[in-house]
Design a protein that fits this description.
7 helices, binds adenosine monophosphate, binds magnesium ion
C-alpha cells in the first residue's frame, strides 16, 4: 500500500497538489486486498450471486443425444432428391424423451418432434411446413434441403469434460440454468465476505428516536446496508458510535475482530478529533487520503488486524459515491478475485456542465433516450454534496475526468450507468 501522493503543481483552483488520483487510490486498494479462498457447499437454489470456488467441468454432453431441432420428418441426407421431388413412406413417429427402435431405410422417413432423439439411419430433418402430405403414411419432399439440417448434435452446447465455468465466476440466473442442465444439485462456492459497519457522530439519532435541535437521523447506515445487501455480503450492523475516544476504540476493535472488512462513515476519515487518527494508527497500517475527486475527498484506508478498513466521509452523498467507486469493486475482488471495471457508455450532454480542471467530478445524472433513440444525459438535480435526493433520482454518474474543463451542450461524455434498463 502506498501513501504516495501526486505532487504535480496546482494548475487551477480546484486542484490540490497533495491529493491522490481516483485511479491511484484504486490501485493501492487492490494491492492490499487478498481474495477469500474459504469455501462452502450450497444447494443450487441458494447459489444466485455466489462465487464458484472451483472450475466446473461438465459430467455429461449437452444435449446428451443428437436430436431434432424441429417438428418434421427425419431421413438420411443421402436419400434426399438432388432435383425434382420424391415421395417417402412414413414408418414411425418419434417423440421427445423416447428413442424409436425403427431403422430408417432408403425411401423411408420418420415423423419426428422437436427434441426427439434422431432414429437410426437418419441425420437430417425436414420441417413439417416444407412437406407435402400424400395421405397418412406418405409425404413428398423437394430438392431444397441439405444433409444435416435442423439437427442438434450431442455435446454441441457443452461437451462432456469441458470447463463450463471457471473458479471465481459470479453466478447469475442463466448460470444456474446451465448448471441444472448438467445435473448439479449442490455447488462449491466461496465464503461471502463479512462486512461490519457503523456510523460515527454525536449528532446522529437512530430511527424511532426524537430529534433534538441540531440532531439528524443516521441515514448512512441504511444506504450502506442496502449497498452491501445488493452485493450479497454477510452484513453486520454495529449501530452508531459517539465521537468519544473509548467508544471508538472499542468499536474498531470489536468490528475488526469479527469481520473481513470494516466500514465507517463520518468523522474518522478526516480525524474529526486528533485521537481518531491516533487510534487508527495504533490499530493498524493506515493511509489518510485526500482524493482528487468531487464529492467525497477524504478517505481512510488500511489494515486493522486481519480486517480491511474503509473510513468513508460522513456526508451521505460522498458515502455512496466513495462506496460505488472504491468499496464495491474492492468487495467484489475480495469475493471473487476479479476486479470489475464497470460499464461505461457514451452519451450526449443535454446541458452545459461547468468544471475546472484538477479533480475528477462525478455528476449524479439521468441517462435517457431522446426522440431519435440516441442516449443523452443531464444532471439529476442540485449537486450539493448534502443533497441525497439527486442521488436517488439519478440512474448514472457522468464522469468528468481530472483534465476536463467543462462540457458543452451536445458534446459526448462518458457515463457510468447504475442500471441496465432505461
Ligand atoms: P463528518 O465527516 O463526520 O464531519 O460528517 C460530514 C457531514 O455528514 C455532517 O454534516 C454530518 O452530520 C453528516 N453525517 C455524518 N454521518 C452521517 C450519517 N450517518 N447519516 C447522515 N449524515 C451524516
Ligand atoms: Mg462526524
Amino acid at each position: 500500500m502506498s501513501n504516495d501522493v501526486s505532487r504535480r503543481a496546482s494548475c487551477a483552483d480546484d486542484s490540490d497538489p497533495f491529493s491522490l488520483s481516483v485511479e491511484k487510490a484504486k490501485v493501492a486498494i487492490r494491492q492490499t486486498m487478498v481474495p477469500i479462498k474459504d469455501r462452502e457447499q450450497v444447494a443450487i437454489r441458494s447459489a444466485l450471486g455466489r462465487v464458484l470456488a472451483e472450475d466446473c467441468l461438465s459430467p455429461i454432453d449437452v444435449p446428451s443425444h443428437t436430436n431434432s431441432a424441429m417438428d418434421g420428418y427425419a431421413l438420411a441426407g443421402a436419400d434426399l432428391p438432388s432435383e425434382g421431388a420424391r415421395s417417402y413412406q412414413v414408418i414411425a413417429k418419434a417423440f421427445a424423451g423416447k428413442k424409436v427402435p425403427d431403422v430408417c431405410e432408403t425411401g423411408q422417413c420418420i415423423r419426428i418432434m422437436t427434441g426427439a432423439p434422431m432414429p437410426q439411419g437418419t441425420d437430417t430433418v425436414v420441417m413439417q411446413e416444407q412437406v407435402e402430405k400424400l395421405g397418412d403414411d406418405r409425404v413428398r419432399l423437394d430438392s431444397r434441403h441439405r444433409t444435416g439440417q435442423n439437427v442438434r448434435q450431442a455435446g454441441e452446447d457443452i461437451a462432456q469434460g469441458s470447463c463450463v465455468f471457471k473458479a471465481g465466476r459470479l453466478l447469475g440466473a442463466a448460470d444456474l440454468g446451465v448448471l441444472a442442465s448438467l445435473g448439479f444439485a449442490e455447488l462449491a462456492v466461496r465464503r461471502r465476505p463479512r462486512v461490519a459497519f457503523f456510523s460515527t457522530g454525536d449528532e446522529l439519532r437512530s430511527i424511532g428516536e426524537t430529534l433534538a435541535e441540531g440532531e439528524i437521523y443516521d441515514s448512512n447506515r441504511y444506504s450502506l446496508f442496502a449497498m452491501l445487501e445488493e452485493l450479497g455480503m454477510d452484513v453486520i450492523d454495529l449501530g452508531v458510535i459517539k465521537d468519544n475516544r473509548k467508544a471508538l476504540e472499542d468499536g474498531f476493535r470489536r468490528a475488526s475482530g469479527i469481520a473481513d472488512v470494516v466500514i465507517t462513515s463520518g468523522g474518522v476519515s478526516v480525524g474529526e478529533a486528533d485521537y481518531t487518527r491516533e487510534i487508527l494508527e495504533d490499530l493498524g497500517k493506515m493511509s489518510f487520503w485526500t482524493i482528487a475527486m468531487k464529492p467525497g475527498r477524504p478517505l481512510t484506508f488500511g489494515r486493522m488486524g486481519k480486517a480491511i478498513f474503509f473510513g468513508l466521509p460522513g456526508n451521505p452523498v460522498a458515502v455512496m459515491l466513495t462506496f460505488h467507486q472504491f468499496v464495491r469493486p474492492a468487495l467484489a475482488y475480495l469475493a471473487s478475485g476479479n476486479w470489475p471495471e464497470g460499464l461505461v457508455v457514451q452519451a450526449r450532454a443535454r446541458s452545459t456542465l461547468k468544471k475546472r480542471p484538477g479533480r475528477f467530478e462525478f455528476v449524479r445524472g439521468i441517462l435517457a433516450y431522446d426522440d431519435d433513440g440516441r442516449l443523452t444525459v443531464g444532471p439529476s438535480g442540485a449537486q450539493g454534496s448534502g443533497i441525497l435526493t439527486s442521488m436517488s433520482r439519478a440512474n448514472c454518474y457522468i464522469l468528468l475526468t481530472e483534465k476536463c474543463d467543462g462540457v458543452a451542450e451536445g458534446e459526448t461524455v462518458s457515463v457510468q450507468p447504475f442500471t441496465t434498463t432505461l
